[in-house]
Each structure stands twice: as structure tokens, then as C-alpha cells.
Amino acid sequence: MPLTSGTRLGPYEIASLLGAGGMGEVYRARDTKLGRDVALKILPESFTHDPERVVRFRREAQVLASLNHPHIAQIHGLDDANGIQFLALELVDGESLDKRIARGAIPIDEALAIARQLAEGLEAAHEKGIIHRDLKPANIALTAGGQVKVLDFGLAKATEAAAAPSLALVNSPTITSPVMMTGLGVVLGTAAYMAPEQARGVAVDKRADIWAFGCVFYEMLTGRKAFDGETLTDTVVAILKNEPDWQALPSGTPLRIQSLIARCLRKDPAQRLHDIADGRFQIEEVSNDPGSSAAVAATARNYREWAAWIAAALFLVTTLVFTGLFLASRRSTTTSSGDRISFAVSPPEKTAFASRVNTTVNVPSFAVSPDGHTLVFSAETPGARPTLWMRSMDNAYAGQLAGTEDAQDPFWSPDNRWVGFFADGTLRKIPAAGGAAQVITQVTTDFRGATWGADDTILFASAVQPIQSVNAAGGPTKSVTVIDSSRQEGTHRFPHFLPDGRHFLYSVLAASPDQSGVYIGSLDDNTKKRLVHVNSNAVYAPPGYLLFVDGDTLLGQAFDADRLELKGQPFLVAEHVGRTTAYQSAVSASQTGTIAYAGPIAQTGRLTWLDRNGNLLGSAGNTDGDYPDFRLSSDGTHLAAALVDPKTNVVDIWITELARGSWSRIAGGALNAAPVWSPDGTRLVFRSNRNGNVGLYERSTAGGGIDRLLLSLETIRAARLGQNIIPTDWSPDGRQLICSAPTLGSGNDLWLLPIGKEATPVRFIASPAEEIHGNFAPNGHLVAYTSNESGRYEVYVETFPRSDRKWPVSTTGGYEPRWRADGREIYYLSEDRKLMAVQVNVGPSFGIPKALFQTRVPAGVTPNRTHYVASRDGLRFLVNTATDAVTPRITVVLNWTKTPKK
């Protein structure tokens, strides 16, 4: 029974009822001893006989007593009187945040102030190891002075089973997920703000609070819930399956805030913002930036009006509506109703998307046709070379395009009749309907994108040359940009024609970050104008947008193609989109409102120890991640590994002492890869683009000191090499490195780099084929390597220095050879990714390859990645075992500028 005004509980006199929740009633009361008003939370009498509820009630008191923060309501005491147990709490004068939101969406500047204080309160609690589990607007109070107070901290509320939850229950203090309604367990929290893992009833950590923080932030800005439904089940389904309506965010919402909310609301906790302090820092930076105030909001409102006009015009354009993708029957769709529709494209059965070459990040290679009807992509089956596949948007079936072996970076002709691509050191084209592929011109294997103009002019790029042009029928090439060394420009890459067919976008990478970005060039004059200061390329998407990836966020921005000017502010299109380490955005756009993007971007694996039978022995660390390269020191005690940061695509190099398991970063802040140990283990050589251009560096493995430049971009260019130079081994005498690198006009060759100050690389093994994965025998007199001179990749051994003696080692395809420390055995990966062993006898002579075990390394032969290393005795193997957690996919969006279809 509710307490009446005037009732005394010890020194407290009840004034009025403030509210009631799942764990008790809250009253306004007067502390007669100290002369102050307080809030009393009363444990209901019906609960006092339940030991579990009493324990939870007392636990809240202990939790609150451990917290002392201006943004968390304080506890004054825990007491009982007249058989009633209660908490005396700080009384917060003001209104709850849910009542404030009920009056309408909160202006951006005010919402930022509230979110910052809310983050500070959560940060203080999380530092104490405390999670809220029921964060929502009703548990957040706003004082008259604008101060935020978080209420009900640490409360673990009980739930009563119910046959049919009402809408009120959906927004009540505590509910259960559908599976828990049977009494199997209890889910604590409020449905609309529960993280997916919380809704499933599994254990939660502070990331559940971060999810709820994102829900609250979104609701403040939009005036509506991020996830809502008419019933409890509808709400939980929305949390588990749906995305918030991102277009509901006010047009003036700063881009970094959009990104922050999206990171808070990632369904996989591993991909979610990990620490609320990082969110607070971002809010503070935006709040202190004058560009995020009312001026930006006004500009954004103008943009929204303009964009709305464009959207209305686009409504008249008809496209294909994709329906019934997952039905067994193949039913063609009719023309589009204008709704925004998105769907995922997976590779054909028993294939995997082939990664873009010359990159350490697993990003599919694909392109949408200009009419938006067809997607072309590169895929491969185990043991086979990648080829192009074509898929209509109204059919789940994809067909292989014959004659496109090793094809990469496809692009379309403007009339949809041809597909261009790179393969085997050439630029080629093939009819989209099928037919013979035709060579257009020779190119370096270190290519960087192409685009096809309306007058059959094709622009293409490599890592070391300006943007080149060539006619689609073939003929001479010429440069259409000039690399400006006075501005420390390194490369021009990823050209993309604009609608007039004379101007084009392209990316500049420079040693000075101030000079890097997306530029406009022209076929007619020396136009050179920077549009976007990002390390990625951009594509044009009608009726007037640029799309580009910043970090792992796909952004759009209005663009006037006549004036060649950006308009308004960037806006969020999609999260967790791929960008290669060559800074190529994994996005493509048609001329009809269809776009496609690829993600997730990580090639996730775990460095796993296996014995010769493939039995699991353990792992080197317990972190799954994208490990492009890793090598054991010569004595087998230490490991050097390159690890991709999934948020930034930065690649750091880490060293660990295997016996202790502690990791230390030895190179970071750039794209670092291919660590190679010196024979004595005291030094490490690696490649890095820390100055905007690739170079090879040497440093002490003891830590500290100054990195020594072994090979600069200038020397690479002088030797006519591509920038994709990969050190793979250090000679046993310590005098030289063996590297693979593309030779201009040819494929990858093996090169020797003497260990000296700015030494010049010397070609070791070269042919029209690909030579990669060079490894010295322990005696220094033999070299094992991979070549596709026979038409498929095989492992060979040659003498060092080179003579006329050469031995095939693999017999049915193989790559990535490694030697046992005594030189008596060679290991390699077969085409179907088995780990093979070959005995090495005197002479030398080589035994019959023997399969040791099936690996789960990522598919594909590439010079850029290490998939395994062997222990000195050959009894254990450290294998980059692919996990099932992240599988790249291509997402297609029809009518992408429209409001998402409900």
C-alpha cells in the first residue's frame, strides 16, 4: 500500500509519491535531522520475503555508495523502519529526460551537452567496474541548471512472467526477452534500450551501456526511439535485425556525432565502441569546434531542402526492384516503385570473393553497371585462379565470365556493353555478354584503378606513374596528370570520370598529409583542384553526390558537377565499409540510383599452433584480427606480427616473447607490413608508408633507437620497381634481403637488396611470369620460391648465387615455401590449402610431397600476406587460421538517396 503524506520512517517524513518501478516506490521526503529534501526508494513489502530481491536492493545501495560523481545521483543511506527497508537518495529537482524528449527533439547543441555529461557519469561508473544495465531517458534527470544526473545505477531488477506484454510493458523499467517469458531466465533492462546480447539473455559488460547510450543520444536528436515496435516481440526483433532510420537524424548533426552513434549501435559487441571515454572525447571535440554550431545547422538545412528537391526528381526515374532474392524460384522483378531497397550479395557457392590485389586488407573487387542492372565481381574457388562473375540485380544466380582468369578491378563502359579489367600486367576488355577478352595496353602489375569515358577514353593508374589515358581500342598512352615533386606528391591513383566526360576525380598521396586527398583533373587543361581531404578515392553518384570512405565509414556529400564544387556537409551512408591499404574505397555507383559497397573489411584470423597432424596446441595470444604478415625469430622465441586496426586500416607491427605472451608495438601510425628478422634476432626490417610513400626500414628489436631507411621511394623508382615491394627473407650471412616486387612492364620478380645505406636492389630471378615468396635455405646456398610460369603456381628451388640448376618441388600446385631449420624439409601450401612437406636429400634431391593437414587459411595466392610459419624442428606450425566471425560481402542499395523501406 502506498505511503501517505506525513508518514514517518525514522528521521524521514513522507511528502509525496514520485514514481514506482519494478523494484519499489520512490517518495519525496524531508530529512528532519539535516533539514533537506531526499528521495526515498521503498522496497515493496511483498519483496521483503524474497531473499534474492532483498540482496539486489542492498546491492544497489553498495553500488551507489561506491560512486561519487556530479552526474550520478548520490545515496545518503540504507535503513529500515516500521518493517520497511528503504534507500535515502539525492533528490534531483527538475524533469526526467523522457519528459524533455516528449516535448520534441532536442537541439543539437543542447543534446551534445547532455550526452557529454551522461558519458562522464557512465565513465566514472565503468571505471569502478559497474554497469547500469537499464540506462534510458526515464532514468536520466535534468536539473533546472542543466546538470545531468543518472538515476537507478546498478539496479538489477526482477521480472514477472506475463502472458501478453502490453505496449506499456515494452517501455517499463524491466522486461524479459521472449525466450525468457517461459521462466527459463531473466533479462534485465528496458526493451527499447537493450543491447542485442542483453535481449538474448547472455552475460553483458559495459558495452551494453554504450549501446543504451547510443539509443538515448539518437532519441534526443530525433525525438523518437532508435528501435521501437507495437509489441515487446516487435521491439526485440527490431533490436536484433533492424538498423535505425539514420535519415531521421537532423541534417545539421555533425558527421562525427553520426559516426559515434552508429558505432555505439553496432550489433556485434566486438565491433561496438569499446569505451565510453572515447565517445566523450569525440563529443567534446565536436562541441569545441565552431563548425558544429548553429551556422552548420543552417547550412545543413539548406542542403536538406536541396537534397529533398533532388530526391523528388529522382522519384521519376525508374529502376529495377529486387524482390524474392532468397526464394528458390527465379522470379524477375518489375520496375521500381522508388523505395530504397538493400540486399547482400554473397559469392557463388563454393567460391570466395577475390581480394583486390596489392593490398593487405581483404576487400572484394566489384563494379555496378552504369544502368544499375548488373554487378560484376571477382571470385575464386580453392585451387583455381580468380575470374569475373556477372549477376543481374533481379536474379540470385551469378554466371562466370570465361576468359577472365586473374582479373582484378573491373570497370564498365558507359554503354554497359564492355567490362574492363586488369590481368597479368595488361589492361583488357571483354564483352559483358561473353566473348573473347582483348588486350588494350600493357601496364604494371601494381595498378591503381581505371575508368571508361563516353568517348572511349580509358584512364588508368599505377603506383609510380601519373594518370594515363588510352583509347579503348588500344594505341599509345599519354599522361593526363603531373606528379608535383615540389608538393612531395608520391602517386596519383583511382581515376573516375565525371558526367561531362572531360573532368575526372583522382586521388593524390603525398608525403605531406596536407597535400593528400581527392582532386579534380581535366583532359583539356591543367585543372587541379582538391575537393576532399581524405586518404581514399571518391566516385560520382547521380544526381549529384560524391561517395568516399573515411576510416571505415561511407560518406556522401552533395556535389555540383557543373561548378565542380562540393555543397553542404558530408552525411553518413553506411558504416564499416571497406577501404584497401592502397586507399581504395570499396564502393561503386551506377547512373540510376543504385550503389554497392563492401564490408566487413577484416580478414579475421587467429595465430594458431598446430602439430604435424593438424591438432590444436594453442595460440600466440588470444586476439582474433587481420594479420597480414608474421614471422618467428631464428631461435623461435619471439614473434613479429603485422596487425590491421579495423577502425582506421592502419597496420602496426607488434613483437611478442612467446614464453611470456606480452606484446609491444615496434612500428605504428602508418601502413607497416612484412617484418623480417635478422639471423641473430637483433634487428627487424619492414615496409612502411609513414611518409606517404613506401620504403623499407630497419630497426633494433630491443626497442628505442632510430629507424634506418634501407630503401627509399626514389631508389625504388630509379630501379623501375613498383611500390609493392615485399621483403620475405634475410640471408643467413646477414648481408642481403630477398624481396618480391613488380617490375615496370612486367610482373613480380625476385630482387636482392644488400644491407647497406640506400643500396640499390639487384634483380635475382625474373621472367614474364610471377616470382614471389623467396626464402633462403639455412645454408644460404639455395632459394625456394613460388612461380606461375607453368600456368599455375608451383614451388621451385634454385641455387644461390644463381646458376643453371633448378628443381620443381611441388607437383600439383603450391605456394609460400618455408625451410626447416636444418634444411632437411620444405613446407608449402597446396592449391586447396593443405600444408605439405617435402623431404630434402643430399644433392640436393627432393622427395614426394606429403600432405600434413588441411588448413583454414584465407584463400588466394598473394605476395602480400603470410599464412603460416614453421617451428625450427618442424613439429609445430603457427597458422593464420581464418575465423567465421567476419565474412566480406557486397551490399547493393537500390534508390540509395530515398528513405529506407519499412
Structure description:
The chain has 902 residues and is mainly beta. It has four domains: 8-90, Phosphorylase Kinase, domain 1 (2-Layer Sandwich), CATH 3.30.200.20; 95-292, Transferase(Phosphotransferase), domain 1 (Orthogonal Bundle), CATH 1.10.510.10; 296-602 and 888-894, 6 Propeller (Neuraminidase), CATH 2.120.10.30; 605-882, Neuraminidase. The strands form 14 sheets. It has a six-stranded antiparallel sheet with strand order 1-2-3-4-6-5, covered by helices on one side. Strands 11, 12, 13, 14 and 15 form a five-stranded antiparallel sheet that branches. Strands 52, 53, 54, 55 and 56 form a five-stranded antiparallel sheet that branches. β42 (695-700) and β43 form a beta hairpin. α3 runs antiparallel to α6 (206-222), α3 runs antiparallel to α9 (276-287) and α6 (206-222) packs across α8 (255-264).
Features:
11 helices, 902 residues, Transferase(Phosphotransferase), domain 1, six-stranded antiparallel sheet, 4 domains, Neuraminidase, mainly beta, five-stranded antiparallel sheet
